[in-house]
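Thread: Newbie trying to understand structure tokens

Hi all, I'm a second-year student working on a class project, and my supervisor (Dr. K.) asked me to get a predicted structure for one chain before our next meeting. I've only ever worked with sequences, so writing a 3D structure as a token string is new to me. If someone could post the tokens and maybe explain what I'm looking at, I'd be very grateful. Here's the chain:
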Amino acid sequence: MRLLLIFPSVPDDNEAERPGVRCRRNSDSFLCFKPNEDEVALMKLKHAENQLNLKDKFMKRKS
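---
Reply by user tm_fold:
Sure, no problem. This is what the structure looks like when written as tokens:
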């Protein structure tokens, strides 16, 4: 008779900090996805661009 012990997979500290890494929790059916660094940088860039455009429109209306 075989005894099989199954422990939930716990990501190590290095794995938790890596962006875009798929980490496994308790089973393969439940996966969590972290945003990729490139996607986050692109979102921040688009947000800054939108803010700049709004400020530009506001300044043009004032003058």
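A couple of things are worth pointing out once you decode it. The CA atoms of residues 13 and 23 lie 12 Å apart. The chain is about 50% helix and 15% strand. Feel free to ask follow-ups in this thread.
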